[in-house]
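Customer ticket, subject: "Can you confirm the structure for Asparagine ligase A?"

Message body: Hello, I'm evaluating your service for our small team and ran a test protein. I'd like someone to confirm that this is what the system normally returns, since I don't have a reference to compare against.
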Amino acid sequence: MLRSDIMQTYDVVSYTNEHLSDERLAIALRVHTTVRQILGDFFRSRGFIEVPPVIISPLTDPLNHPVYDPYITYYDEKYALTKSMIFHKHLLVSHFDKIFTFSPNIRIETPDKAETGRHLSEFTQIDVEARGATREQMMSLVEDLMVELVSKVKEKHADDLRKLGRKLEVPRKPFRRYQYLEAEKEYGKDFEAVLSRKEKDMFWIIDIPLQAREFYDREDPSRPGILVDMDLIYPEGFQEALSGGEREYQLDRILERIKKKGQTEEQFKWYIEFARRGLPPSAGFGIGIERLVRYICGFKRIDDVHPFPKVPGKFSL
Ligand code: AMP
Ligand code: MG
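Agent reply: Thanks for trying us out. I re-ran your input and got the following:
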């Protein structure tokens, strides 16, 4: 990894060359190629259409954790670099039943994230959304996907995985579910990491409390304060694989949730205007591709799967 003390041009070039010629990176990129193919084929074969990514927009995900927010000036307008396509997905499913996109995200994470092994400031997620879908349907779809993906990768990359000494188990359906608040009570504040180290298979954390997520995840009408959403967690300490859930779609609910977050209507004026004209109920999720490849390869650090990794706080080409 690059540190400021090796930021001489010569060092940057030698570091990059060394990284690019690392056999582990070559394996990761072969796996990456297969992963993208399987993901695309899986959703296409189930009637999802692929849409191109949005890279700049006046509208992007507010996220629920602090990141530095870069903007560009686009013909006198302020455009954000996409942190996620959550709002664009919702607008799209007003017109298309089921969509997915390989979406590059820029999230300039704080430098304390450099050592998690899970964070890059530039990554890609496959972002999926379906009109009228429930969380339950999306969870079932993800379970089918993960079983198929791990089985196929194991078969196709048996030699690569052997070289890495990686033993990968095909997950078994149905994946175990933990309720967020119960897990927190039993395993403490760090329950996700604790459970990820303890479990041998992928598992779900569901029913995340309102303050822990963004305003657009749907609040359960029968359980105020609890969202109809989910995270999928990798075992062996690899932690979060995806986040998703059902969405708020009614104008009054959206406005109330924005207010509860202490955010402004001005920030989301375009989205609110669409909601005023009517948005459909929908559900979806986003899977980080680099994290998925890291999990498959069993690498300690996510930077090892990317040719030009933007590790938070570090210099990178
Ligand atoms: P989110 O909706 O914020 O949970 O993001 C969706 C998915 O993208 C997460 O579940 C991760 O797999 C992935 N992801 C989020 N942030 C990062 C990051 N900084 N670096 C790499 N992957 C990320
Ligand atoms: Mg998440």
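A couple of notes from the result: The mean pLDDT is 96. The chain has ten helices and 13 strands. Feel free to reply with more questions.
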